């Protein structure tokens, strides 16, 4: 029996966690009850947290809904560079809501404790730094930076100001990922050696061809502010495609790597305890969605993690396909010497399938045995059976383990709850600036590798390119 398997069995003992049914009912119920107690707790007026959201696009509205699902959170204002979204915010959250097209007006308000930064990627870092220097807590959408060069400065400002800062990759707060991490650390799949993670999509909306408003013109959009972070040679005349579908353009977004690879890496780093990889290489193509975008719609990356005190060496393959006949589907498969952990969706479930290597090497079947004379085969079989017992020739069998979060569970709300708990109580942040950058940088390095056509080397400990 391997050391990892002994560790796993010792950890679980005779616990009901050994069966798929009990994982689905007992463990999920237990953690859900804790979440309900936490989310429904009474909040005193002194514990109220007043927030503003900067960037009221898809993620801005989603993050705001999740934040307001946490008791004691109040929305004071919003900022967006399109007047239509400011009008929509008043429709949803009330005519007295403060709205502005200049994020600095949000940061100057004394009645705002925290901001959600859900702008285009090119503004994440600057607004977060401005907010921390104004004494605001910051919930920053991923990736926390648009360029790798911005990361260390943002971390420095967070440490200097001691501001509460959390990155918005909800998998890090998921009860399913927490349970998966516990079982991984207990040796449930043996010694890790590789990970396969992917996102598939097969629709216009999935490929970021978002609906354009009829009044999305230069009179209703602050185009100059939108592209103010770009160097002169990357500035463009007003284009509604670039503004409303900014994810498709390098000047404002980070493509599939910064938008989706970073989710996968955040979950991988959380479960394995890794600080990051050593080498990154990616390839890709603009295969189908030739709508003016300048980032690929199919991308694959091979990322090598070296051996550290946190984990053995392992390889990660990442893939995004925006024209996949498989449809909308994502998975992360963590593969070890004794099994595979398959994490589906955005943090709602996982399964573990065991597949042990037998002590005996095997004989017959797809083997050279049948190519030898019959007398030689008989001698070899007799010697094999004398050398190896029946138990050594058979792999241990075990039922798959399945874990599912309750139907009404939301990792987004849990992630927001963790953020507001940190503001109220000083509880440690679950995804701080260092963790967020260590997930973002290798994802952005995939873009560098693709566009520069070379292997990128990364110093994960010191968070810098080599």
UniProtKB/TrEMBL annotation:
This is Gfo/Idh/MocA family oxidoreductase. Residues 181-454 form the Gfo/Idh/MocA-like oxidoreductase C-terminal domain. Residues 49-168 form the Gfo/Idh/MocA-like oxidoreductase N-terminal domain. The keyword Oxidoreductase applies. Signal peptide: none annotated. Keywords: Oxidoreductase. The keyword Oxidoreductase applies. The lineage of its organism: Bacteria, Pseudomonadati, Bacteroidota, Sphingobacteriia, Sphingobacteriales. InterPro entries: Gfo/Idh/MocA-like_OxRdtase_C, Gfo/Idh/MocA-like_OxRdtase_N, Gfo/Idh/MocA_oxidrdct_glycsds, NAD(P)-bd_dom_sf. It comes from the Bacteria. One of its GO terms (molecular function) is oxidoreductase activity.
């Amino acid at each position: 029996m391997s050391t990892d398997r002994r560790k796993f069995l010792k950890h679980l003992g005779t616990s009901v966690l050994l069966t798929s049914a009990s994982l689905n009912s007992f463990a999920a119920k237990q953690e859900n009850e804790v979440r309900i107690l936490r989310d429904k707790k009474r909040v005193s007026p002194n514990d109220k947290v007043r927030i503003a959201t900067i960037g009221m696009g898809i993620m801005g509205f989603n993050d705001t809904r999740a934040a307001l699902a946490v008791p004691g959170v109040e929305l004071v204002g919003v900022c967006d560079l399109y007047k239509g979204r400011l009008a929509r915010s008043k429709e949803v959250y009330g005519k007295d809501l403060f709205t502005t097209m200049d994020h600095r007006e949000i940061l100057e308000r004394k009645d705002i404790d925290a901001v959600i930064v859900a702008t285009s990627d090119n503004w994440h870092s600057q607004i977060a730094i401005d907010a921390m220097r104004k004494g605001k807590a910051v919930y920053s959408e991923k990736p926390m930076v648009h360029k790798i060069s911005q990361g260390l400065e943002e971390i420095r400002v967070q440490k200097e100001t001691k501001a509460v800062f959390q990155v918005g990759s909800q998998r890090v707060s998921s009860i399913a990922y927490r349970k998966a991490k516990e079982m991984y650390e207990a040796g449930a799949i043996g010694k890790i050696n590789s990970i396969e993670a992917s996102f598939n999509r097969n629709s216009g909306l999935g490929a970021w061809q978002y609906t354009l408003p009829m009044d999305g013109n230069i009179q209703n959009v602050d185009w100059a502010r939108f592209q103010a972070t770009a160097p002169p040679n990357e500035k463009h005349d007003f284009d509604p495609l670039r503004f409303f579908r900014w994810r498709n353009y390098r000047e404002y977004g980070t493509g599939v790597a910064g938008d989706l690879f970073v989710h996968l890496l955040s979950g991988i780093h959380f479960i394995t305890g890794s600080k990051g990889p050593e080498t990154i290489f990616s390839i890709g193509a603009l295969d189908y969605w030739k709508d003016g975008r300048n980032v690929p719609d199919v991308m694959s990356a091979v990322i090598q993690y070296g051996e550290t005190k946190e984990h053995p060496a392992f390889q990660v393959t990442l893939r995004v396909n925006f024209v996949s006949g498989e449809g909308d589907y994502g998975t992360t498969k963590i593969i070890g010497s004794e099994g595979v952990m398959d994490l589906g969706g955005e943090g709602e479930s996982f399964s573990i399938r065991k597949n042990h290597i037998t002590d005996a090497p095997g004989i017959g079947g797809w083997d050279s045995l049948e190519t030898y004379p019959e007398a030689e085969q008989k001698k070899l079989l007799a010697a094999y059976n004398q050398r190896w017992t029946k138990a050594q020739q058979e792999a241990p069998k075990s039922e798959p383990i399945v874990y599912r979060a309750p139907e009404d569970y939301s990792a987004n709300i849990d992630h927001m709850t963790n953020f507001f708990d940190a503001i109220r109580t000083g509880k440690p942040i679950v995804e701080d600036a260092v963790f967020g950058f260590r997930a973002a940088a290798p994802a952005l390095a995939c873009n560098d590798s693709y566009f520069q056509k070379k292997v990128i080397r990364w110093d994960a400990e010191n968070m810098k390119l080599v």
